[in-house]
Write a structure and sequence with these properties.
Length: 78
């Protein structure tokens, strides 16, 4: 499993609905509200064999209310 962080920009007034939908899909390890350009920051774990882009497209990006996403991959450095 590898940790992946995804920042989400939501339509105005839809942040709570997006957060609820993500939790219903049971893919989120941690989810935070953030300030700035993006509204939510989530941490998910994806199997090392899974294609990250495909996973995000199938399980995250199609949630109604999401306008934009930014995915940050993590690597074991230490």
């Amino acid at each position: 499993m590898r940790a992946v962080f995804v920042q989400l920009q939501c339509q105005p007034g839809k942040t709570y609905e997006v957060a609820d939908a993500l939790f219903e899909r049971e893919i989120v390890s941690e989810l935070y509200s953030t300030s700035g350009e993006y509204d939510l920051l989530m941490k998910i774990y994806i199997d090392t064999e899974d294609d990250i882009g495909k996973f995000i497209n199938e399980h995250v990006a199609n949630v109604p209310g999401i306008v934009r996403s930014l995915t940050t991959l993590t690597f074991k450095a230490f």
